[in-house]
3-oxoacid CoA-transferase subunit B
Amino acid sequence: MQDKLSNAQIAWRAAQDIEDGSYVNLGIGFPEMIAKFQPEGRDVTYHTENGVLGFGQAPKEGEEDWDLINAGKKPITLKPGAAFFHHADSFAMVRGGHLDLAVLGAYQVAQNGDLANWRVGTKGVPAVGGAMDLVHGAKRVAVVTDHVTKDGGPKLVERCTFPLTGVGCVTQVYTSLAVIDIRNGRFILREKVPGLSMDALQAITGATLYIEGDVADLIVPEELA
């Protein structure tokens, strides 16, 4: 069986499905990697909650302009036509339904599309950020995540047990082992890593995986590992 995908490989796979001409918000941390793997010739406009539309690749080390950062406080570059605006205007774009896609990380995703990604029970410091606005303002919400927790428990579950970020908002999940659609309250398996049996995948998934048509091999560039 192929080893599980790295974060970079998951991000690469998610990037392949972002449509040309889309306006996209990438969550802080792991989801930000997706911008690195934008397919050649595809025009995607990235939005960040702190007030930039149309930012580009991260600058080379030593060439950072720390007046240009994203919501995760990481340095960015600008594409031609990029725009700056007030934080409130940025969230007006989100809440007004002007984003085609938001891609976020997750602690749990339920089979009905519920998302929990801001707090694990009562542990740690709550960090909601703009996620609650994004999951209900963007036209589509996808998640990138490891398939299981650090303890080996399922992240894809029948029902979230952590505090919810959004209800019924996620339509697609890209994990370290599979690509899964969420439709009609069910996990629909689209792709899985080569050599991984359905029984093995189901055993580490906390809700039933359904199959509609062929399940493709999840193939990603090895050099990204």
